[in-house]
Amino acid sequence: MKKSDFDFELPEALVAQQPLPNRSESRLLKLDKNSGNTSDLNFTDVLEELEAGDLLVFNNTKVIPARMLAKKPTGGKIEVFIERVLNPHQAKALLKSNKPVKLGTLIELGCQPQLMVSGKQGMFYLVETCTEQTLSELMQAHGHMPLPPYITRDANEADDERYQTVYADDQQAGAVAAPTAGLHFDEALLQAIKDKGVNTAFVTLHVGAGTFQPVKTDDIEAHQMHKEWLSVNQAVSELVNQTKTAGHRVIAVGTTAVRCLETASGEDGRTAPFVGDTQIFIYPGYQFKVLDGLITNFHLPESTLVMLVSALAGREHILAAYQHAIDEQYRFFSYGDAMLII
């Protein structure tokens, strides 16, 4: 298949630049993955679409303040975007500067050198602290919420809360982009879901900067996926298996939860604990092992994520549903509306 097979025209005005006042006020486009039929709902209507015994799987990663505006000792500006923390004092990062960044360059945060460029790995630099402060401490003091490139404004204090799910786990900090399907859930809706007898489980996948990298090959099979770290524990794997054995549905909240589930599951449909990197690339033709449904936002044209949802519901159904969403003025991308593919 070709990258252009997943293209569509999106009016710029439909790219959501701000979150709605309340998380669960978003709209929800329901797509029947078998027939292609769509229904226009409110996000809270998801409660009526779920059944007792279903399992909702969430990604509990927490977004780190990964973007730091800094300068070199010469005074030149440099932007540091932490992509992955390797240990308390070293990370992979993207560096943006007017001039090429040399190894050994010192980076000033505040009024003194705090980081040093120590290596290069492909498109990423290795940076390490040159003070006693950890990277986490430096990001808390100098970092900003890393809003996606299609949000064309600077991050503000409101984003510190709203570009984070309500169930983000402090112990699972490490993402540089939010698992945005989860942004629609508030505490009241989560409680109503549990009260209905729907089970919930939490996996972790630290969303990396590669999620925004475009597919550069026209033949999508030649595209090399970026690596992302994930964890599916024993309790979650057992709950997934029990749900499937009982004939109930496993529904992922977000494409990152899909990547966790499908990476941790075998061809026999059984899920096992998994901790490590995944490069799974899901596009039409992929046979899902455990997934029955998906709650997700609308995705970029020609992106690996629109390919993933096309694998679940069919490319023609997805493109038709997206055109319907455009015609009905749904809000797109991270702070936008949601889809339920079931």
UniProtKB/TrEMBL annotation:
InterPro entries on file: QueA, QueA_dom1, QueA_dom2, QueA_sf
Stored Pfam families: Queuosine_synth
Compartments annotated for it: namely: Cytoplasm
SUPFAM superfamilies in the record: QueA-like
Any one GO MF term held by the record is: S-adenosylmethionine:tRNA ribosyltransferase-isomerase activity
The catalysed reaction is: 7-aminomethyl-7-carbaguanosine(34) in tRNA + S-adenosyl-L-methionine = epoxyqueuosine(34) in tRNA + adenine + L-methionine + 2 H(+)
Q: What is its EC number?
A: 2.4.99.17
The main place the protein resides is cytoplasm
UniProtKB keywords:
Cytoplasm, Glycosyltransferase, Queuosine biosynthesis, S-adenosyl-L-methionine, Transferase
Q: In what pathway does it function?
A: tRNA modification; tRNA-queuosine biosynthesis
The protein's enzyme class: transferase
Self-association or partners: how does it assemble? Monomer.
The record's similarity note reads: Belongs to the QueA family.
> What biological function has been recorded for the protein in this entry?
Transfers and isomerizes the ribose moiety from AdoMet to the 7-aminomethyl group of 7-deazaguanine (preQ1-tRNA) to give epoxyqueuosine (oQ-tRNA).
Q: What is this protein called?
A: S-adenosylmethionine:tRNA ribosyltransferase-isomerase
* Originating organism: Marinicella sediminis
User: Taxonomy-wise, where does this protein's organism fall, top ranks first?
Assistant: Bacteria, Pseudomonadati, Pseudomonadota, Gammaproteobacteria, Lysobacterales
Q: Which gene encodes it?
A: queA
